[in-house]
Amino acid sequence: MRWQRSNRAANCAIVCLAISLFTPFVPSAVRAASESSATDRWAFQSLVESDWDKQEQRRGRSPSSPDAIRDALERSRQLLDDLRRMPGFPDDPAAEKALERLRGESGNLDSLGEDQRLALYHRARAFSRDLALKNPLLDSRPIVFLKRRRFICQMLHEYLGYFYDYENIEGGGVFILEKPGRSLATRD
Q1: Torsion of CA 34, 36, 42, 43, to 10 degrees
Q2: Which pLDDT tens digit goes with each residue over 113-170?
Q3: Which of 36-45, 71-80, 127-136, 165-174 has the highest mean pLDDT?
């Protein structure tokens, strides 16, 4: 029984990490965005890009900084290499060409203007995001995640605490993200 609890907690932690990587954290008022109209798709893309900007701010840099672009391209390369080793991932020479094209554009970052670097950063992150969503473990499958009210200094242990309920915090629950990376629509 102890192994089952820790295994469930570990699986939950992995799912929560996947959620944080592939979907932006947004206010609940925006969760009703649908993917039907161009305006909604633009709004969803803006939320994703806003989340990317916040991630770079937490690293103490701007998304248009050369280091941010190099890191985004390196993570894309690592992700593509990892996905290639997965069973069920289709051989995709177009992805390799797209990555090489992005790396070629990043060859002389210092000569690019800030707007050009920001556009390159967003293209690199969008490429990586699209790759991640092609992962056979995530592709077109709903993701179960936990949502809890947070307290000061709370981090990943909140998800482990869901199973042990050590703080007896009210609120939250188990939700399903219907279309990961494509919509913020959830259900209980």
Answers
A1: -20
A2: 999 999 999 999 999 999 998 888 877 788 888 876 665 555 555 555 555 555 555 6
A3: 71-80
For residue 149, the model assigns a pLDDT of: 66
Q: Report the alpha-carbon distance of residue 7 to residue 5 in Å, rounded.
A: 5
C-alpha 16/C-alpha 33 separation (Å) is 21
- Which helix or strand (DSSP H or E) is residue 146 part of? strand 143-147
- The domain limits of the chain are 1-28+140-188, 33-138
Full strand arrangement of the beta sheet holding 143-147: 143-147, 173-177, 186-187
Question: What is the residue-wise DSSP string for 17-33?
Answer: HHHHHHS----GGGTT-
Q: How far apart are CA 73 and CA 161, in angstroms?
A: 35
Q: Which amino acid is at 35?
A: E
The residue count of the chain comes to 188
Alpha helix positions (H), 59-105: 66-84, 93-105
Q: Residue 43 half-sphere exposure, CB side, CA atoms within 13 Å?
A: 15
> Are 105 and 122 a contacting pair, CB within 8 Å?
no
Query: Hey, what are 58's tokens?
Result: 């937490």
Locus of tokens 């188990």: 174
**Which class for 53: exposed (0-12), middle (13-18), buried (19 or more C-beta within 10 A)?**
middle
